[in-house]
Every structure is written in C-alpha cells, then in structure tokens.
Specification:
This protein is α/β, with parallel strands linked by helices. It is built from 16 helices and twelve strands. α4 (about 75-85) runs antiparallel to α12 (about 255-270) and α11 (about 225-240) crosses α15.
C-alpha cells in the first residue's frame, strides 16, 4: 500500500487555478496520443513477450555465472533501481548481475573484461536506437572476447539483444547472427521502458517477481488524481522560485531508485529553459553534509521524501531501529519544514507491488508535469548536442 501526504509539511494554495488544464491532460493520457503505450500494462507488454522473458530469465539463471547488462539512461536505470532495492546488502546472489555501458571509463572496461574472462557470461545489450556510443563500445569489446571463447551456436544462447523491432545496427546483428532478441516498443521511450523487456528481463534474472511488479503498475491507475495533485504542487512551487526538488530517502537500497527518478524528471521536463532540477539525498548520511543547506540555505529547494515504513528490524538499546528511522523521517521533515517544505510518500513494505505502483506514479506525474510546463515529455533533444560534439571530437583522434 502507498500513502501520499501532501499536507503535513507542505502548504500550498492555488491548486484550483489548474482545473481548466486537467481535463485536456487527462484526455491526452487516456487516449495515449503519443509515446504513451506504457500508460496501460496491456499495451506495455504482451503475454507472449512476458512468457518469453520468464523463459529466457530461467535459462540465464541456470547457465550464467555473470549476467552482463549493457545500456545507458533509460536502458538500465529502471532495472538497476529495482534490483538494488531487493538485493540483500551482503549475500551474493547465484547469478551475479553486472551493469556496464553507462560510462567511457577505460579502467572500468578493462577491469570488467579481466573479471569476466574466465566466467560463464550471458550478455544483454539494451539500446533502443542501437546507435548510442557508450553501450556500443562496451558491447563490441565484450563481443570480441566472447567470440574467442564461444562458438557460433553457443553465442546464440549467450547474447541477448533488446532493441528496436526493425531499425538499427543491433537489429541487423540479430538478423545476421540469430541472437535471442527482445523488442523495445515504438511508443515507449527509454525512461518509460522499465516495464518492457528492457527492465523486466534483468529484473527477472535477479529472481524478483515480475508478475507482482506489473500487478502494482496496474494498481497504480487508482492514483491518477494523486499524480495530478503532486504535479500541480511541483508546478506551483517551481513558479514560486523553488527550482530544486530533492528526492529524499532513508534506506540506502533506494539510492538507484532516486537515480532513476532523477533521469525520469530531468529528461522529461528539463527543456525550453524550464523544469525543476532533481537532486537526491540518502539520509542519515546526507543530513551531515547537505542537511545544513536544507535547514538554512537559499530557499530554492523542496523535498519529496520516499519512505519504507516496515523493514527488517533489529533492537538497539531496547528500541526498534526501524521505528527510530521512521521517527527520523518525520522529525527531519518537521525540522526542515519552516525552510524547506516536504511531500511524504510512504510504502508500507518494500515489495514488488508497491514498487510497481510507485514507479508508475512517478512516470505519470512526470508526464503531467511536462504537459503543465508546455514541453514534450517524451523527447530529449538536448542530449543529442553532446553526442554530436563528442563524435566530432572522436573523429579527430
Ligand atoms: O530516456 C531515454 O530515451 C534515454 O535516456 C535513453 O534511454 C538513452 O539515451 C539510451 O538510448 P538507447 O536505448 O537508444 O541507447
């Protein structure tokens, strides 16, 4: 179960001024006008694709020491976020899941290749366009090593490609080499693709129940009104000069979840010289670094706190540590409130249904927020600028 508190530590008025905009935005969403196939579970993923993900994930679990997921941005952040949320802190899993292709670090790539060379590896390269430099470089290096180690038939069971159904270099490779493949649906962009094969295959390999995750997404439809309230609060605060939204968590396992949220909001809304700047903090750690700023710095921030209420518990000095952390969540919001207001969103437990529901909540809210700003939620034209200059630079070496 999710609980939304937009009142206790947040005092806003002016919501009614938005009434005339809500109808049109709701219609856009319901009609799934463009790039909105993720809005309904049934158009996000088909039964046959789901069954194939389950089958392939079982195969990977039986046959790999290492499952290497290569992708950047929306092609890896969603699965990394969910896997980290459910992964024990210290126990090693049967299949080690490693993410790569999200940097140009030569040290990372070199150490990765050394690490996997004697292991049974299955690779999943994920790129909707098939043209992104960082995953391409990593995949080519890994493919080179795998070609030396495995024959053609073995490779057909060890290389899995998730890409556009028709276009791009990766699709050409699938057609040529007959690798296992999954499609990124046309009408779903990278940062909205966590509940397609892009996210679900790595998540299933890590033994998380993807059926229950999708059940949570389906359940998320009941929160659409809450998405509107949250999006409107954000918009009002932004227009009043609160330019930064801090996603604040008290459970370090949610760290990558906040990275996923940052990408979702940053790429969806940061365009046309507009948009809140998303940041994240993990408390208590960051109470002793940025906490001072939230308490007394320039009042340009508001917080959206994401809390898990019931966790594995342990008694410390005869008191429940879980309760102490929950008290910290509320008391810090109370302390920050006169200077930095907070929304509070709680999951009663960290389980698949709640996580599916919560991610869907943020996906819908981010889209509504972009419509309120008058920008296209589903493009990211600015990202192209660095890619172009980088390619020009690389040609010169
Ligand atoms: O949200 C998006 O669309 C982007 O962040 C993409 O996921 C990212 O740029 C990677 O693109 P691709 O999957 O084409 O390699």
């Amino acid at each position: 179960m999710l609980k939304f508190d937009f009142n206790t530590f947040m005092h806003i008025d002016g919501e009614n001024d938005y009434n005339y905009k809500i109808h049109d935005i709701r219609e856009k969403l319901e009609k799934k006008e463009s790039m909105l196939d993720w809005y309904d579970v049934d158009t996000t993923i088909s039964k046959s694709e789901f069954d194939k993900i389950v089958k392939v994930s079982n195969y990977v679990r039986k046959n790999a020491d290492v499952f290497l997921v290569i992708g950047i941005g929306g092609s890896y952040l969603g699965s990394k976020a969910i896997i980290d949320m459910f992964k024990p802190y210290f126990k090693k899993d049967d299949v080690e899941i490693i993410f790569a292709g999200f940097s140009l670090s030569s040290t990372y790539l070199k150490e990765l290749l050394d690490y996997i060379k004697d292991k049974e590896v299955i690779v999943n390269v994920i790129s909707k366009s098939g043209t992104t430099l960082e995953p391409n470089i990593t995949f080519n290096a890994v493919y080179g090593i795998m070609k030396k180690k495995y024959n053609k038939t073995q490779l057909q069971k060890r290389i899995i490609i998730t890409t556009d159904k028709k276009k791009g270099k990766l699709r050409e490779l699938i057609n040529k080499e007959k690798f296992i493949s999954f499609k990124v649906p046309d009408n779903i962009g990278g940062r909205f693709s966590v509940f397609t094969a892009v996210g679900l295959l790595p998540i299933a390999v890590s033994n998380i129940n993807i059926m229950r995750l999708l059940e949570g997404v389906r359940r998320g439809k009941k929160n659409i009104d809450k998405c509107f309230i949250y999006a409107i609060i954000r918009d009002i605060l932004y227009k009043k000069g609160r330019k930064i939204e801090s996603f604040t968590v008290y459970e370090p396992k949610l760290y990558y979840f906040t990275e996923w949220i940052k990408q979702l909001f940053g790429e969806t809304q940061g365009k046309n010289n507009l948009g809140l700047f998303p940041v994240s903090v993990v408390n208590s750690r960051d109470l002793h670094s940025l906490g001072q700023y939230y308490q007394q710095g320039d009042p340009i921030i508001f917080e959206t706190v994401i809390n898990v209420v019931n966790n594995k518990d342990i008694k410390v000095t005869n008191k429940s540590l879980n309760k102490i952390n929950n008290i910290a969540t509320i008391k810090v919001a109370e302390a920050h409130a006169p200077h930095t207001p907070s929304n509070i969103i709680c999951m009663d437990h960290l389980n698949e249904e709640n996580v599916g529901e919560l991610m869907y909540f943020f996906m819908v809210s981010a889209s509504i927020g972009a419509y309120l700003l008058g920008v296209d939620p589903f493009n990211q034209p600015g990202v192209e600028d660095y890619k172009k200059l980088l390619m020009e630079g690389i040609k010169k070496i």
